[in-house]
Design brief:
This protein has one domain: Aminoglycoside 3'-phosphotransferase, Chain: A, domain 2 (Alpha-Beta Complex), CATH 3.90.1200. Helix content is about 45%, strand content about 10%. It contains nine helices and seven strands. It has a three-stranded mixed β-sheet, covered by helices on one side. Strands 2-3 form a two-stranded antiparallel ribbon. Strands 4-7 form a two-stranded antiparallel ribbon. The longest helix is centred in the last third of the chain and has 20 residues.
């Protein structure tokens, strides 16, 4: 995935956002011992407890997605086996996982809102804390996590995170123009990620607290 990020994104023309250019080694390689270097960009994370910050992150994501809409499907996506890749497949019904009982109520409510979201393309599936802002500059999009999904899915994940973990107001849904179905899919993705973590033996999650947050977010979007 690192090599794809370095080579594919090196050709992207940023309009309405900043993108750190990758740095090659002295012998012209993009990846060295599994690592890729990127030029540092100035900026700070926004306060996602405000609707305006959430909208700004989503708008930066939209600009990024317009710029990468021409890219073909990355072959590295199918090879990924990390928690997030497995959770993404589960969220789209491509993988079956044993559910966490505490999530059953929220999951049942969210399934009623899972609607089609459009055609797939390369998207950044972790925009929430990877868009930074600096005075006088366009927002910077960092640490690209590529998925092959509809762009609104990426936006739904941002709002799912903002509602669950940043106490964003419920009217952020209307202000951002993101659909209920996209946020529902984002919430299912985050629940599936915790499920994958638990299945792999990482049992430090506070499942009761997460279940409460997911249920609250489901209520906020009307499900």
């Amino acid at each position: 995935m690192q090599e794809w990020s370095a080579t594919a994104l090196a050709e992207v023309v940023p309009e309405g956002f900043r993108l750190a250019p990758p740095l090659s080694t002295r012998d012209g390689q993009w990846v060295c011992e599994g690592w890729v270097a990127w030029r540092r960009l100035e900026g700070a994370e926004p306060d996602l407890s405000t609707a305006s910050a959430c909208v700004a992150v989503i708008e930066a994501g939209r600009a990024f997605h317009r710029a990468v809409a021409h890219l073909p499907r990355p072959g590295c996506i199918d090879a990924r086996t990390d928690w997030w890749a497995l959770a993404d497949r589960a969220a789209w019904g491509e993988r079956t996982v044993r559910g966490v009982p505490e999530f059953a109520d929220a999951l049942g409510r969210l399934e009623a809102g899972l609607t089609p979201l459009g055609r797939p393309q390369v998207v950044h599936g972790d925009l929430t804390t990877n868009v930074i802002f600096a005075p006088g500059s366009a927002p910077a999009v960092l640490d690209i996590s590529p998925y092959w999904r509809p762009t609104e899915y990426a936006e739904g994940i941002v709002l799912a995170d903002a509602l669950c973990w940043h106490d964003a107001p419920a009217d952020v849904l209307e202000l951002s123009g993101v659909s209920v179905g996209a946020v529902a899919r984002g919430l299912v993705f985050r629940m599936a990620t915790t499920t994958e973590r638990l299945a792999s033996g990482h049992d430090t999650a506070d499942v009761q607290d997460e279940a409460r947050r997911y249920a609250r977010a489901a209520t906020a979007i009307g499900l």
